[in-house]
Design goal:
Its main location: membrane. With 449 residues, the protein is α+β, with helices and mostly antiparallel strands. Helices cover 47% and strands 10% of the residues. The two termini are 48 Å apart.
């Protein structure tokens, strides 16, 4: 039997040499070291995928084979179609906005001395779990301005530029002198002459809501030298009961700050506000009707319904961006550090302004990094579940529904149909696979350059 000669090829009949890796290690050793990872990969990825595909072809109780009926139910169910629409919004909006903000933060923080501290603040939300972030933003979006930070800011800005109502839900006594006059205002039925004291009693206000109100002063004591029309606006309710309707009784509270207008021939000829004791004086002559405009009684501005059916999805996307903009910023900043400064300086020397340097040089050079960030976030938002489940209240959860949440609800919630849930899981996998393939192809193309 021939053998191989030194420095030559193996002679016919000689046994083949064992295959070795680049480092000279036999292939079976490499496979042995990879075996634990392959077992875990099979148990945690391959088996669940295979089981989900198989389970999606069976009925809810897995008793009989239903072919593709579960997939038909997925594409005809209103909640699932809403989830698909919301997932599309998530994929388009959230990665784009987060990547854009990350790019802006990364570029701007290069020019300031406290850039590192700023990056730390922006990246800190990444250390918070989705559960904790969901709880935080559920409180941020509370409708009550005394609890929700977002509405506290909105209401504060609104009340700065718009006049707040004095006594919302207040109204005159039935069959009294005041009657509705349109638009939420109340006007006296009869005209009042100058120097005539007018009693304008109101009800519908809880006495406990007026803790600092002074006792009301009877209108006959509110005259000022016999000039103009005078009167009193007060809460016509005596704590403990008793008293006479339409008259100021001891213990009844004054309503200060109520706007009172004198109307003559359909035009406002004078206006004032009540004093601390509820009295007012209008400098006008002739018979006039007194009107309490609607601004006194309008409901106070309560802010934006962040978690209502129209804004719940954008609100949750805002919470996601708060968490993940720091991730995008860090990756883009790392890519920005590798951009040749000579190109940027050469462009500035040639007369390019900062916007042209940014748009024509910085962004094109960062394109590979931006694609990595964008694709990573797209894959991430396709699987979003925690934030939607925690932030969206039960009344609008259907409006904020996404595929991962619908999968959970169908499999373990009220649906209790793991066949349909598995079909949604397969659909979600099919949506993620193209993005993953694109990412793999791009990475291989980059490696060949």
């Amino acid at each position: 039997m021939a053998t191989a000669t030194a420095g030559g090829a193996a002679q016919p009949g000689s046994p083949p040499a064992p295959r070795k890796s680049v480092l000279g290690t036999p292939r079976w050793v490499a496979v042995l070291f990879l075996l634990p990872a392959l077992v875990l990969l099979g148990a945690l990825v391959v088996y669940p995928i295979g089981y989900s595909i198989t389970r999606s072809l069976f009925s809810a109780d897995s008793s009989h084979f239903v072919w593709f009926d579960n997939y038909g139910e997925v594409f005809t169910n209103h909640d699932t179609l809403t989830a698909v629409k919301n997932n599309a919004i998530w994929v388009i909006v959230a990665p784009t906005v987060a990547t854009t903000l990350g790019l802006i933060f990364a570029v701007l923080t290069e020019r300031v001395s406290w850039g590192t501290a700023f990056k730390l603040l922006i990246f800190m939300p990444m250390a918070i779990s989705m559960l904790a972030a969901g709880i935080i933003f559920r409180l941020v979006y509370e409708q009550d301005p005394d609890k929700g930070v977002a509405n506290a800011v909105v209401v504060g800005v609104h009340d700065t530029f718009a006049e707040a109502s004095a006594y919302p839900r207040a109204r005159p006594r039935p069959n009294g002198d005041l009657a509705p006059s349109g638009g939420g205002a109340f006007t006296t039925k009869a005209p009042h002459e100058a120097s005539t004291p007018v009693a304008l009693p109101l009800i519908g206000i809880l006495a406990k809501d007026l803790p600092d109100a002074r006792p009301a002063k009877p209108p006959e004591q509110a005259k000022e030298g016999g000039k103009g029309v005078t009167g009193t606006v007060w809460l016509d309710f005596k704590p403990g009961g008793g008293g006479k309707p339409g008259q100021v009784d001891p213990g009844e509270k004054a309503l200060k700050g109520v706007k009172v207008e004198a109307v003559k021939d359909g035009k406002v000829v004078a206006s004032t506000r009540t004093a601390d004791d509820g009295t007012f004086s209008l400098d006008t002559s002739g018979p006039v009707r007194l009107r309490l405009p609607s601004s006194n009684f309008a409901e106070q501005y309560a802010g934006v319904d962040w978690l209502g059916p129209d804004l719940v999805t954008p609100a949750i996307i805002g919470a996601y961006i708060w968490m993940w903009a720091g991730f995008a910023m860090v990756l883009i900043a790392a890519g920005l550090a590798s951009v040749p400064r000579e190109l940027l300086e050469a462009a500035r020397v040639d007369g390019a302004n900062e916007w042209k340097v940014f748009s024509r040089i910085t962004v094109p050079l960062l394109a590979p990094v931006l694609v990595v960030v964008l694709v990573t976030l797209m894959i991430n938002v396709l699987k979003i579940f925690d934030l939607v489940y925690i932030i969206a209240p039960g009344s609008t959860q259907a409006d904020a529904n996404v595929l991962a949440l619908q999968l959970y609800l169908e499999s373990f919630g009220s649906g209790n149909n793991q066949g349909v849930g598995s079909a949604i899981g397969v659909l979600l996998l099919l949506l993620v696979v193209p993005v993953m393939i694109f990412n793999i192809v791009r990475m291989r193309r980059e490696a060949r350059r």
